[in-house]
Write a structure and sequence with these properties.
It comes from Sphingomonas cremea. It holds the Pfam family DUF6356. InterPro entries: DUF6356. Keywords: Membrane, Transmembrane, Transmembrane helix. By secondary structure, the protein is mainly α. The protein has one domain. It has 3 helices and no strands. It is elongated. It starts with a helix and ends in a 13-residue tail after the last helix.
Length: 81
């Protein structure tokens, strides 16, 4: 049970639990930041006009490059988290 909860998924991606966790925290923080920029943009349209879109494109490129550089890219899902 513990293996399934904590280690199976990171190991299937060729990562340790800590590596996977650190990457997920970074990606999540960037997503939260982009979401906050969207909320501010909704109130003041002149602010953060490209922040969310740039963040999404950057995260997509990041995940695609990690998948391509993996030992077994076919084992990776279309998303990393």
């Amino acid at each position: 049970m513990l293996g399934r909860l904590f280690w199976d998924h990171p190991q299937s991606l060729g990562m340790s639990w800590a590596e996977h966790g650190a990457g997920a925290v970074v990606i999540g923080a960037r997503m939260v930041g982009a979401g906050l920029a969207c909320v501010i943009h909704a109130a003041v349209p002149a602010l953060f006009t490209q922040t969310a879109g740039r963040t999404i494109m950057s995260l997509h490129d990041h995940m695609i490059s990690r998948k391509a550089g993996a030992a077994n890219p076919n084992a990776w899902p279309d998303y990393e988290i």
